[in-house]
Amino acid sequence: MRRRPRVPPPPLPQRDGVDPVRLRLPLAGPWATVRDHLVERLPKGAAVIDAMMRDGAVVGVDGPIPPGAPFAPGAYVWFHRELPDEVPVPFGIEVLYRDEHLVVADKPHFLATIPRGSHVAETALSRLRRDLALPALSPAHRLDRLTAGLVMFTVRPEDRGAYQSLFQEQRVRKEYEAVAPYDPELTLPRTVRSRIEKVRGVVAAREIPGDPNSESLIEPAERRGGLGRYRLTPTTGRTHQLRVHMNALGIPILGDPVYPVVTDPARDDFRRPLQLLSRAMEFSDPITGRAHRFESSRSLGAWTSYEEWSAG
Q1: What's the pTM value of the predicted model, to 2 decimals?
Q2: How many domains does the chain have?
Q3: Helix (H) or strand (E) segment spanning residue 52
């Protein structure tokens, strides 16, 4: 079995809680210089690449790479991305638990878990790295940007695999809460099983024929007029799983901009968040053996402000 080459640590510090971009140069190619390859590979344009290299902003393991440096097959280079113009998410993130291995946070709606696409500095990971002075903090799993509630991070890189395996091996009991329409003809509780497909670049996931790869227990918790509050317990963790399953039952979660219809709310519109909350998380710590149970202190606005949401 061929071993992967060891990746050296980044020679650039984080900036605003965001890691530098790391690229590995191809093992072969027609480029005479590193600059030639970067101009072809990156959408920045030749003038921007030239300026970055003149300023010493493109760095290899031995330091800044000058504009005329010869192409080095398989070498690593680092540089800081230009951060996108992000709308600040006007809600705080609360740390519920912290020890030498683990951080558990209570994330607000609209805040992405990790840097991705147009959300980079305005993410839970970047904020916590800055606020807690933990540059090596890493996510143990992901929570949708639009979903609020519990999300777990590892403090040390050497512990990350142990905590990630909890989720991969379904050894974390997760409980969610949602507010959605009440349907008196829908029989609940119900276990929903289906095959969910999420195509890269397509916003909505969909259910397709085939062996199920997702399972969710949907239970009623409370009714208030035409709305219901539901307890959702997923066994698996497919992308948008709970949102897809609730929509398939005919009771799409309130505030969902994707199911049943894809909409495009303004980036600075925080008025009607998705009414889905990662309420509780329970597991045995793989490092310490300690039994953990964490609960979000957040509430769903459609339930606490029922009249306002009912008015549309």
Answers
A1: 0.86
A2: 2
A3: helix 46-54
